[in-house]
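Hi there. Long-time user, first ticket. I'm pasting a complex I've been working with (about 344 residues overall). I'd like to know whether the download I got is complete or cut off, because the file seemed smaller than I expected. Thanks.
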Amino acid sequence: MTYMNKVLLIYTGGTIGMNRNPRTGALEPFNFESLLSNVPELQQVSTEIATFQFNPPIDSSDMSPERWVDLAHVITNNYNLYDGFVILHGTDTMAYTASALSYMLENLTKPVILTGSQLPIGQVRTDGKENVITSIEIASAKYQDGKAMVPEVCIYFNGHLMRGNRTTKQSADNFNAFESFNYGHLADAGVNINYHTSRILMPDYSKSVQPRFVLDPSVIVFTVFPGIQEDLIRHVLMSPKLRSIVMRTYGSGNAPQYPWLMNALKEATGKGKIIVNISQCMAGSVEMGRYDTGYQLKEAGVISGHDSTVESAVTKLMYLQGIYSDWHQVKNYMQRSIRGEISI
Ligand code: ASP
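Hi, the file is complete. Here it is re-exported in full:
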């Protein structure tokens, strides 16, 4: 067969490639070759598929910034050899990896599609086969002029293609494991794959891909809740190593108006710590001017995360902190959309 397109299939681990350990009954990663032999359909696909395996494959709960750097190296070292990349990944942290890569791969002009499954690929009712086969088709889809149809880091799952840094895992059971609550799907796959081209980013083709391999994970996520304790929060906020906080607030960005909390936040922002306000709600946006409880946060120097996911805010902070030692710069870029991650 002469192939029109070439895709690199990168296997990091996750349920898609797991087997049940007969002794413990728990799912464990197994070899990539066995994974491919479970999808003989791939031999009929008109795209040439090369493979790369993480050694050892991991449950994505063990994913880390160091492994994101490894992934970014694999993609950029092979960038000119392939039309697109498909990453097989566990679902648990897939939205973090997709978000991180979207920032790390600056000026991306080729598709990087993450997928996985809820049931191992060897099981009769697996959702993995369709996810992998359609991801490969999307990763190799090009316009007549040779440009990729989806030059973005995305998650494809259960018929939906979503911008990676807009996506969150929504279910541990359903095949519909991911959703992009604040941004429309980039494509929907039924009988045909229907691309929503107006939602897809248009890269600047005059620039070449610029990978960033340095991340600074001095970030913490804290969730407000009724009964939150001053000494515990102060302890976290004043940690000398901490550079930024993703604060998960109520509704449109509201927090309890305890004077100690406002003072602690003000002290932290005054020392150059960046506090980003992200709603605990799945859908909708932070608007700190809507209620007085949100306005107080703004007064304390907290910045709006707009309609960002937590996964996107955390990885964007790691990426910006890896580039800039000056907190003003990090704060400035946090309030701009740099990869289509927030609607402003
Ligand atoms: N624990 C698994 C992982 O994230 C779950 C999955 O793949 O769906 O690796």
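A couple of notes from our side: The chain has a mean pLDDT of 94. The longest strand covers residues 47-58.
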